[in-house]
Write a structure and sequence with these properties.
heterodimer; A: 327 residues; alpha/beta; Rossmann fold; 2 domains; five-stranded mixed β-sheet; 14 strands; B: 361 residues; five-stranded parallel β-sheet; two-stranded antiparallel sheet; 13 helices; 9% strand; globular
């Protein structure tokens, strides 16, 4: 049996189910309890679990991110909500030094089973400080995992797995996806981290994407199909682990690859995926990989400029045409 | 709202005085052990057996020993990078600490942490942390977790307290202040222990922080119980700290203590100590906490010179054996590189196929 629920509901179901299953799981963050979630993700959870397990914090990202890591050292399994990943920057020392490295620095004594989650990427005219795509900033640090769910089904299945994982998981949601409905089974399910999925099948070109920009990839693939170019759209689902095998398998079939990444181009996830595709598929490629990114400028406020800056279907169509020599 | 109180070193030493000779001898031995460990560490560092940074605790021994004596073995301890003493006072074997400093597999973190990162889960020693102030948010997390386990999971009363140590330099980091505020808002059973040794690296406390003349002022805005304690006297440390610890355990409310101490050596091994005078150093060395406590034990507890000498010999032997054990402990083999972390193995070039390279070291 499936139902159609919003992405935010799927996130809440994942957290609530895991909190019912394991008393060591708790949710902490700004406005998660009495406000019922700044984006209504945790709506109703205070009523069910009480103030000892759904905990409001002041605006102190360093403090409560570190609190979560310390609690994880002592054996709890915290879910720490950042209202926006943009605000995680002030907690960078905690989330980058303490969470991913603790197990190693302690010689295997202190695993950090924690999930940091929240909105990532442009929310819509929020200006540059609130529009961070943190994946390229953080993914390079060994010890952390990173998931970036595309729809309600993945949001629930990946988050449940993330909560049960013994490593810190950076879970990147999107304000622009929270209200989008999708089919989610009644029955329990988990999605492993590190397993990409095919969102659309086509043999002419591979488009690789993560999270929200996949909507633009699918829109572009639709338009390209009308021109006779059929694309594979590969959803990486997680950035670490990166399922390069599935990506490479697709590229070996299509011989062309476009990577779509909402972060800035320089030293980015897109650059990493492109490099790995070149390493894995050198003899299979009929052109070098082409990347589509946000432009290398701070996110502007003005609607027209912001739209121009972000990846979109038009840019992806152009990139696919160029890479397949169709343009 | 708790009132702020200020303890003084000159107050009657009733609590520590009531303790048995046996307990106090343990304190003395712990302090001697820490001193010997640090002296030998400095030698090993000069002999290049220890790499990286080395921050020794000489002069501050009474702080770790006197405070940890007031806690139970189940109370979490977390501190900054001048951390050997806290691990030793907690009972981590000297050989494991020494092997860690020498980067050996037998170290308390398998040689992956080093001098600044002493971890020992068995002893509830949650590190050794290298970034100034960064252990404070972790400390409130430990306090949150013990309270959560005791109350939410076990359905009882909160029974444990967390000892969160930091230097005077951390007073000026946001991480400490966010932690103090959160501890107050969430009612966490934690004691913020400021080891004020006079200098954050080369910057005198008063040059870096406001109200240096009375650091308990830092606790006022957070509504914490607080005390300022003489850290050159282990009995004064215990006397000042024990009531705070008991109250913290009882009320599950955070507290703040300033313990005034002095590091006899530099910030690290490369510190020429130009920022302070020889006079000042000599003045504090005259207050050596070990000498002071030794005199008390001789005068008031009847510890004879022979007994003291035997204790010193046993400490020297323990550290000598620790060094010898550490030196025999294997260097971590290459397989350790990728152990204890989620990672993607990076290759293909591992530098294992020759040619033979000239070893410059």
């Amino acid at each position: 049996m499936t139902r159609t629920i919003e992405y935010r509901d799927a996130l809440r179901e994942a957290m609530s189910e895991e909190m019912r299953r394991d008393q060591r799981v708790f949710l902490m963050g700004e406005e998660v309890a009495e406000y019922q979630g700044a984006y209504k993700v945790s709506r109703g959870m205070l009523d069910e679990f009480g103030p000892h397990r759904v905990i409001d914090t002041p605006i102190s990202e360093t403090g409560f991110a570190g609190l979560g890591i310390g609690a994880a050292m002592a054996g709890l399994r915290p879910i720490i909500e950042f209202m926006s990943w943009s605000f995680s920057l002030v907690a960078a020392d905690q989330i980058l030094n303490n969470a991913p490295k603790m197990l190693y620095m302690s010689g295997g004594q202190f695993p950090i089973p924690i999930v940091f989650r929240g909105n990532n990427g442009a929310g819509g005219q929020l200006g540059s400080t609130h529009s961070w795509c943190v994946e390229s900033l953080y993914a390079g640090v060994p010890g952390l995992k990173m998931a970036i769910p595309f729809d309600a089904y993945d949001a629930k299945g990946l988050l449940k797995t993330a909560i049960r994982d013994d490593n810190p998981v950076f879970f990147l949601e999107s304000e622009r996806l929270l209200g989008i409905k999708g089919e989610v089974p009644e029955e329990e399910y988990l999605i492993p981290l590190g397993q990409a999925t095919l969102r659309r099948r086509g043999d002419d070109c591979t488009i690789v994407g993560f999270g929200r920009p996949l909507y633009f990839c699918l829109e572009a693939a639709e338009a390209l199909a009308r021109e006779g170019i059929e694309c594979d759209v590969v959803d990486g689902r997680t950035i670490r682990p990166l399922d390069i095998d599935s990506i490479a398998e697709s590229v070996r079939r299509t011989n062309y690859c476009v990577v779509v990444d909402q972060s800035w181009p320089f030293a980015s996830i897109g650059a990493e995926v492109a490099a790995q595709v070149h390493e894995h598929c050198f003899d299979d490629l009929d052109n070098h990989v082409i990347r589509v990114h946000s432009d290398d400028v701070p996110a502007p406020y003005a609607y027209s400029l912001e739209q121009e800056m972000l990846p979109n279907a038009r840019k992806i169509v152009e990139a696919v045409r160029a890479v397949t020599y169709a343009g | 709202m708790s009132m702020t109180t200020t303890g003084r070193a000159t107050e009657p030493r009733s609590l520590a005085q009531k303790l048995s000779n046996e307990t106090l001898c343990t304190w003395l031995r712990d302090m001697l052990l820490i001193r010997e460990f640090e002296v030998r560490s400095m030698q090993a560092y000069q002999n290049k057996k220890i790499g990286g940074f080395l921050h020794v605790y000489i002069g501050q021994e009474a702080v770790a020993v006197g405070t940890i004596a007031a806690a139970t073995a189940r109370d979490p301890v977390i501190t900054a990078y001048r951390d050997h003493a806290h691990a030793l006072a907690r009972g981590t074997e000297a050989r494991y600490c020494m092997a860690e400093m020498m980067g050996r597999l037998g170290g308390c973190a398998k040689g992956k942490g080093g001098s600044m990162h002493m971890f020992d889960r068995r002893r509830n020693m949650f590190g050794g942390h290298g970034i100034v102030g960064a252990q404070c948010p972790l400390g409130i997390g430990l306090a949150f977790a013990t309270k959560y386990e005791d109350e939410v999971i076990d359905g009882g009363a909160s029974r444990r307290i967390t000892l969160c140590y930091f230097g005077d330099g951390a007073l000026n980091q946001g991480s400490l202040h966010e932690s103090m505020n959160l501890a107050g808002v969430l009612n966490l059973p934690i004691i913020f222990i400021c080891e004020n040794n006079g200098y954050s690296m080369g910057t005198a406390t008063a040059r870096g922080t406001t109200m240096a003349e009375d650091l308990t002022a830092k606790a006022v805005g957070y509504g914490f119980e607080s005390a300022s304690i003489d850290g050159m006297d282990v009995m004064a440390v215990y006397d000042g700290f024990k009531p705070i610890a008991d109250q913290c355990r009882e009320t599950s409310r955070p507290a703040f203590v300033e313990i005034r101490t002095y590091r006899f050596k530099g910030h690290s091994m490369s510190d020429p100590r130009k920022y302070r005078t020889k006079d000042e150093e000599q003045r504090y060395q005259a207050m050596d906490p070990i000498e002071r406590f030794t005199k008390y034990m001789a005068a008031e507890r009847g510890v004879t010179e022979d007994e003291h000498e035997a204790m010193t010999r046993s400490v020297r032997k323990e550290i000598r054996e620790a060094i010898s054990w550490a030196e025999k402990s294997p260097h971590p083999e290459s397989g350790e590189l990728y152990r204890d972390v989620y990672t993607d193995i990076w290759g293909p070039y591992r530098g294992t196929s020759g040619p033979e390279m000239h070893d410059k070291s």
